[in-house]
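pinned: reference chain
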Amino acid sequence: MKQPIVLFFLCLNFLWSFGQEDVLEDFQSSELNQPGKQFPMVNSQGYVRFKVNAPAADSVSVSLGLGGSGGTTLTKNNEGFWTGTTAGPMDEGFHYYHLTVDGGTFNDPGANNYYGSTRWESGIEIPAHDEEFYALKEVPHGAVQQILFPSPSTETSRRAFVYTPPGYQKDTDKEYPVLYLQHGWGEDETAWMNQGRANLIMDNLIAEGKIDPFIIVTTYGMTNEIKWGGIRDFDIKHFQTVLTEELIPYIDSNFRTLAHPGNRAMAGLSMGGMETRMITMNKPSLFAYYGLLSGGTYSPEDVKEHDELKLVFLSAGSKENPDRVKNAVSELKNAGVNAVSYVSEGTAHEFLTWRRSLRELAPLLFN
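pinned: its structure tokens
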């Protein structure tokens, strides 16, 4: 019996080893690390290595992704440092993560923080093969400014961020179209400029002559008051009032906009896409361009009486449900609607999907 047992375990070892990738020791500090911090590190394959100083801790692990799914258990050395490497490569692009130390949730002291999962999370960037389109380059740059606009419906002033393209400050006679761009659940109005790098995507597209300049406005979608998985409980009417009756009039009064539906677009990622769909269905005369980025679909029946409509853009990552997006666009086209689908190859419900989606959407707007 010994020989068959030995052969069995040799086969198991071969099968386990087959297809396993040797981890290259070419790790470099993440570009999103805090100044002077070496860890976390990323190698050329997309593996991530963590190192945390917690000498009094009994257990340390890393949770990656929106909501902290997935995990890497770290191992403690004699000096009190906990280290560990992800079991496999991460998808390209930006990811949230946090530490779990003895059951408590903490951020990595080596990484910068970004608002996601309804809290400030650590962030890491896995270099992408096509990262040039959102890279910081030596091109003319637009400005991103914080504004506070009055909101009688919520009895306070609310915050928004406004991207104005290069030349906005100098050419004081020119007016611009506007894209209202919404974040997803767990995020806020900082997401598109920080995690999404929307301003850099715009700067690069403008510099390459691929788009005519336009303004982008991001504001908090009032989504985080509901718990994860409770989307059906979300009531759009409060945010709809803020956006359509308070923010848009403020932007049109305080910025040089082309204040007409034909020069106004709304798009959003994930739950922001759901908000976009609801508001464009309720207020079809306000926007001419709709974009749902991993955020649902429209049917021909949904938009049959939308007289101002010029474009429906639907996107998803290839690891999501791309056929749903493709099929919806095919039905819209057959009904005579100008509709475009985009699938981000190799990505899931994550910011590289949405960065790429904005890159594809922007040249289609305001033509």
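why pinned: The chain has two domains: 21-127, 132-364. The first strand starts at residue 28 and ends at 29.
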